[in-house]
Amino acid sequence: MPRPSTVLSPPSLPGDSGAPGAPAAGGVRPSTGGTSAVKQLRFVTQDPAEGIEVLERIYSAKRIEVSPDAPFAMSQVLAALERVSLERVRLTGAPSAGLIDAPGTLRVARVLSGRLIFTDSTGTRPGPTPFLLPQRPYSCRWTDLDLLTLSLDTAAVEAHAAELLGVANFRLHFTGGEPVSPGMAHYLSTTVAAFGQHQLSNEEAMAGRLTRAEAFRSLATAVLHTFPGTFLDRASAPTSERTSPAGLRRAIAFMEEHLAEDIGLPEIAAAARMSPRGLQAAFRRELASTPLSHLRGMRLDAVHAELLSTDPADGGTVSGVAGRWGFAHAGRFAAAYRERYGVNPAATLRA
Description:
The protein is of the alpha+beta class. Helices cover about 40% and strands about 20% of the residues. The chain has helices at about 50-60, 155-165, 180-200, 205, 210-225, 230-235, 245-255, 265-270, 275-285, 290-310, 320-325, 330-340, 345-350; strands at about 40-45, 60-65, 70-80, 85-95, 95-100, 105-120, 130, 140-155. Strands 1, 2, 3, 4, 5, 6, 7 and 8 form an 8-stranded antiparallel β-sheet that branches. It is globular.
């Protein structure tokens, strides 16, 4: 997957009111700092050769053709964690074309403005709704393009899908590039927007391995449920596994013992001695919930307890406490906290 070679100033990401700075000669802007967890890049140029080099590195583009008789301007921003990155590129002036060959990268895109068309047999129509870019080499053309992309490590997404399904040697294959429904398209868009606007910018939270792992799981799960393929085919198949009260108790006990650790559905199901799908069905039948929703509720309780025992005079913050328990999106965390406890988390900290 794409990896920036230089840590640079923070990017404008999806839904930002601010846009990347106007392209100007001189290439990469100077660094204004960053964290070791989030690698960030901002690049602007009017030099086609410089722009092509960056497109080749970030998007695995090849054989890029740029009209020599038209002006060229490019601005590129990128923010990356392990296994996932978010990119936004603006290409204005000269109509351009290229071949994209990015093995090992699963990439979802949205056309924010301008035009992108596939010039081979790809059936997907690029537009403002999220779409999946082909998993094979493909050719395309673009004009005055403003493109947002989410890139995920394909092997990591496939492993996550296998864990959710509880299936060994699962092979992930998408059979279409357009969302299965408008509702799922909206779900994916809001998940990506939250990642770009609130999680990547939360340096304190992103420093925690648990928070980064939860961010990847959230994005991978959204992509798996949005586009048709072998994951949805397998997930929709009925399960005959019966509810096990003892299994539920084992699952909840495991969550309690490993609450601060990077655990997910596979680990919880293994502790319960049930399949992931069977455990999910059991939670729905017995608790009208899901294992991961129950885990988030337990972590909210842990945040609540820590806020009550934290003295803000000693430097304790809501963001710091929430981040330690895997909550990086301040708005969603505050809403969930208010729903559960009836007060803002800041009020609990000051109590």
